[in-house]
Amino acid sequence: MQESATLNPSLDAPQAADAIIRAEKIEKYYAQPSQNRIQVISATDLNIVPGEILALLGPSGSGKSTMLRMLTGLSKPTAGQVYWHGKPIAEAEINVSIVFQSFALFPWLTVLENVEAPLQARGAAPAERRERSMKMLDMVGLDGFEAAYPKELSGGMRQRVGFARALVVEPEVLFMDEPFSALDVLTAENLRSELLELWTKKTMPTKAVFLVTHNIEEAVLLADRIIVLGRNPGRIRTDFHVLLPQPRDRKSEGFTQLVDYIYKVLTRPDTEPAEAPGQPGGPRVRDQRQMRYQMLPHARPGGIAGLLELLLDKGGRDDMYRLADDLSFEIDDLLPIVDAGQLLGFLKVEEGDAAITPSGDEFANSEILRQKELFRNAAIDNVLLLRQIRRALESKSDHTVPEDFFLDMLDEQFSEEESQRQIETAVNWGRYAELFDFDAARRRFVMPDALEEEVAEGEDSK
């Protein structure tokens, strides 16, 4: 395992010189007719070096898969450059493989034929294909299943075929895009252990591993180095080496501290990250995002209320690592609810703990009508988009505003798809809080009583 005295190995000169893949100021954005652009990934430097498992973490929408596609040459950066051993990746003969979440096997081919497929595509002779493929199947524990078809295998066995197929070409860098997320808990745990054993014993014919995941424990368990992305746009928030020795104990203090630290980075997007536990020096990356609109977390008011009630049962505070475990939630399930609670001022995250605030305590202990009132006040005070919609409705004589008015403003900051999702979440929150309603037929925001009057008038005219 590599150790570093700096907190930004991706910018460390010796590592940059030795990097297999080096990304310099790569960006991904989409131009708009208004001469604005939707920034998906902001200018980013990143290196993949030999002897390292690098894990890329981040919430949904942070650009993890987009980053992977740019680093593998599947997608060209809008700006910046990716280098393979110092040569622009478009001009180089790269040797990488990707293991996907969905197995991506050819159902009409046998296990052996699936593993042979990439060698056949490279023009390898039949005898060589068979020898190398049989060796890989034996390595991943599938000896004896050569003639089976994917439909005859369990999910875990199919993913083993995926690993064998990726490794048979002896890639210099193995990319994995959430390879364990489609598996049950025990199967995923078993495959992680086997992957780590192959890596530590240097049985795998690869020099570096790049793992995209949303599972914090998985990253801390496997990785030598972890990068956490923020979103809107995607950018590196923290980048650090994991100095815990292998094999790692999930119950150890160091392991728990790192998990809590990453939770804290993910749940406090507007706060500059501190250094990771056990790391020398200061923070790796200074996060200086400035936003006009907050990113509304896609959580329902009922989910926020449920989380607050659960925290009350736990004395008003609980470790987020244990909270997610108790709920059997993945990070992408829990974070939007936590983010929403923080945005509304109902809870705060401190040192990896979710703690209910006095206003959150009042909300959780109130009757339904009072909860709506508290939610409404919190939304007006803390959420710019909801405040703007309400004030626009109040200022109009007919108390209606077209959806496009706000979509046009959101489009300057978010992608078209995310802008629409922001509107949908705003409508959900606004209706619950009785701030406004939404006429889906006309795609217009309306005051709650204005919509009721229109409906009544329509019924009277019949």
From TrEMBL:
Q: What is this protein called?
A: Ion ABC transporter, ATP-binding protein
Keyword Coiled coil set for record = no
Species of origin reads: Candidatus Sulfuritelmatomonas gaucii
Question: Any keyword Transport?
Answer: yes
What keywords would UniProt list here? Answer: ATP-binding, Nucleotide-binding, Transport
Name the source's superkingdom: Bacteria
Which SMART domains does the entry mention?
AAA
What GO molecular-function term can you cite, just one?
ATP binding
Pfam families recorded for this chain?
A: AAA_assoc_C, ABC_tran
Spell out the SUPFAM superfamilies in the cross-references: P-loop containing nucleoside triphosphate hydrolases
Q: Where is the ABC transporter domain?
A: 21-256
